[in-house]
Each structure stands twice: as structure tokens, then as C-alpha cells.
Amino acid sequence: MAETRVSPRERLVLTAIIELYIATGEPVASQAVADQFAHKEGLSSATIRNVMASLGDAGLLEQAHTSAGRVPTAAAFRFYVEQITRPEAPMGRIGLGGAAFATLPQNGIPLSEERRGQIEESFAGVTSSNEYLERTSHVLALVSSGLGVALASGTAEQVLEHIHFSRLSAGRVLAVVVTRAGAVLDRVLVLDREFTHLELETAARYLNETFHAWPIDRIRTEIARRIEEEQAAYNQLLASVEELCRKGALTTSGDNSVLYVEGMSNLIAVEVDRDRLKQMLLALEAKQRLVDLLTAYVNGSQQEVRVVVGLDEASPAMQDLVLIGSSTRLGGTSLGTVAVIAPTRIQYQEMIQAVRYVARLSERILEIPSQ
User: Does the reported pTM lie above 0.70?
Assistant: First the structure.
């Protein structure tokens, strides 16, 4: 990764340009920066123009036209994120390539009372983890004017509340699994042989009576063990149950990842380049691309906020987007990931705090079911 040095004066001017651009969305002229530092010694209009030219040569500012103001590049936004999220890091050196990763310090600027109230009011009536995650995508889209995303954990330990099988057609059965956390998972199973209604009812009753409140990942292991130990007594019954499970009736990961997305229209509202917007939307429409994006950048085992500026490693069309995400947990178990995906011109400090606040609300608004 290439690096460049930034002097204290250049850092001061660059920060002012970035914050003016975030506030207005317009290219920033040297006079606008000079107005910010009207009473600061050593920062005349001529000095600021020279500093801006130097920042442009360093790849931190770009200029669409000779007479136009300057616009921060992705590298500039990476530098800005580094300053507001890691104040203890050495200042004055920045990388010009690749995504910027940062963790929000605990002493960041707190959310306003008004914003906290807005978030908490939006979660009124939520009683399950599914409702929490679905509502999260809406809330984060609302407060960020970007894309709100929540991904239910595919590896979290799910506990069986109830399972039901319905025969759809020859060789096809619908399995509906309800977990103790309130998630409803359904899957169409393509079976190797026909199952009668009685066999399906018997299999569901056996699972519900024998494995109610068991972690789903343990059920399949236990069934395999019982098949081996009690093959003679339970051969027909357990063979039926084993095939239903093997075909995916109790699968909670992979293609069953539950993804909630809201706020696509927010990106439409702020993006001027329609051809570029079309490519962004195509990249974001793929569910698996979003799932991979959140999985790659947000560590589900740690409840910290991650900021990734420039998502071009995921897709070239997403190079002008930023991801701000965090895992969300309940009683030490991962519920999933919540995130904002928005243009790089976003109110970073507020959105970082909003994502953190929403991620931690799960512990307060959800109760761990009694076993």
C-alpha cells in the first residue's frame, strides 16, 4: 500500500474540506476553506490554495474542472475515518490503496437525546430477534439516508421450538421450523422416496416431543447416534427422520441466511450519475453479495463498530460507498450483523454511534427465553 505524508497544516485543511463537502455535497472552493480559518494566523487564501494543490498532487483531492472546487477522494475519506475513530493512532501518514478498516473508540461523540429517542421509539413493540433485525434495517436507513442492512446470523445456536412437515407433491415436502428466538425457517425438501402423511406427522411429533428446546445443530448429531445404537427398534421411524434432516429441514446457515434491506431509494436520491447508480444497484441487489460483504468485513464474535471506506474490493461499482457495521448479540450469542451502506459523503461520527447504539439495543429490548 502506497503512503504519503500529511503535515499538520495539510491535515487541518483536508479535514475542513471533507466536512464542508459532507455538509453541502458540492465541490469545495479555496475561499470557502479560507472563510473557515479567517482568524487563524498563517492560513491566508493563497496559503490554502497552495495546500489544496499539494493535497491534489497527493491523490487526496480531485477537481472535475479547472475552475471548479475540489472533491475529497476515497483516500481522503479513509484518512478522515482514521482520525475520528482511532485518535490514538500515529497521525500524518495515510494509505492510498485498499479499504480502510477502523474501530470506533469508546469515547466517541455521543448520540443526541433526540436521535436516541427516535431510534428507541422505532423499536417499540419488538419482541423477537427476527423483528429486531427487520426493524433495524428500517431504522438505520432512516437515520443514515443510506441503505440499512441486517443479516441474521447463520452460525448462531438456534433452539427448536416446533417443526412441521407438509406434503406438497410427489417427492416434495415443506419443512417449517420455529425456533425459541421466534425465527420461522422454511425449506422445500426434495426426497429420495415418497412419505405418507402419517409418516410426516409421526416424524414431526417425534422431533417435537423428543428434541423440543434442543439446539438444532445438536439434533442431527443425536439422531445419527440413536440410529446407530437403536437401529433394530427404530429403523423405519428414525430413517425417515434422518432423511428429512439430511435434506435440509433443520439447516440454519448457507442459503437460509435471512437478510433485511431497506433504503435503496435513499441511494437513488443522492446519486447524480445514473449509469454509476445502475451498477451500484446491480451490485447491491445480489443477496449473496451483501451477505459476503457483511461476513467479510464485520467480525460476528466481537461487538465493535467497523468502518470500511471504498467497497471496490467487493465490486468496482461500489468504490464510492462506505460500510459502517457491527455484530449484534443476545446473552453472548450472535444474532447477526447490522450495517449502513451509504455514499462516502455521510455524517460519519453520528452514523458510527447510531450503528453501535442499535447493535446494543438487542440486549435491552429482547429477553432471553427461559430453557
Answer: no
